[in-house]
Amino acid sequence: MAAAADRPPAEAAKPLLGLLNGIAQATYYGNAEITEELLRDQLYPETAPQEFRALLAKTTGVVKSIASADMDLNQLEAFLTAQTKKPGGITTEQAAVIAKFWKSHRVKIRDSLINQSKWENSLKNISWRVDLKSQSRHADQLNNPVAIVEMELGKKHGQESEFLTLEFDEIKLNQMMRKLSEIEDSITSLTQSN
User: Fold this and answer.
1) Are 101 and 113 in contact (CB under 8 A)?
2) pLDDT digits (tens, 9 = 90+) for 115-129
3) Angle (deg, nearest 10), helices 92-117 and 9-27
4) Is pLDDT at 1 greater than 60 in this prediction?
5) SS3 sequence, 58-94?
6) How many Å apart are CA 122 and CA 161, to the nearest integer?
7) Which long-range contacts (CB under 8 A, 24 or more apart) does 5-14 make?
8) pTM for this structure?
9) 88, HSE (Cβ side, Cα atoms, 13 Å)
């Protein structure tokens, strides 16, 4: 790290910015080609492996703390200031580089974390129509209105969507609406208690 201290401030910031980008690539953007060895060889070749490992762990910890809290600029400034005052923390120059990195990567990292935390499918779209039943096994069901609901379920990573089509008569639709209302009430009670 002595070599990094000998560089002018802008030059000294480049390896750290590269390290932060590498951490983002490996941790949040799914780039398996980014390894500890690659980062050390490309960014800190004169740094001993143990010393680089410590820098990588510290920097990764800082990025994960910032990302998991989805810090806005005020929170980020307070957090980085605290990190500079902590024994074994970061320097003010490192804090400035981290702030610059976070400003440009916040949205992408947040989106990546959201996508990583989603279940397999998510509802992308819903459409519906009401039809009159023209065929049925039972004559008393003819000409009864039915709701046809089509849901588009999207998968992660841009895979093709799946479509689910459901048919509801009035009784089933009322049951579904009651269940959805219960879900809405539960979500409302949880969000209002926070």
Assistant:
1) no
2) 777 666 778 889 999
3) 20
4) no
5) HHHHHHHHHHHHCCCHHHHHHHHHHHHHCCCCCCHHH
6) 10
7) 9/93, 12/93, 13/93, 13/96, 13/97
8) 0.59
9) 4
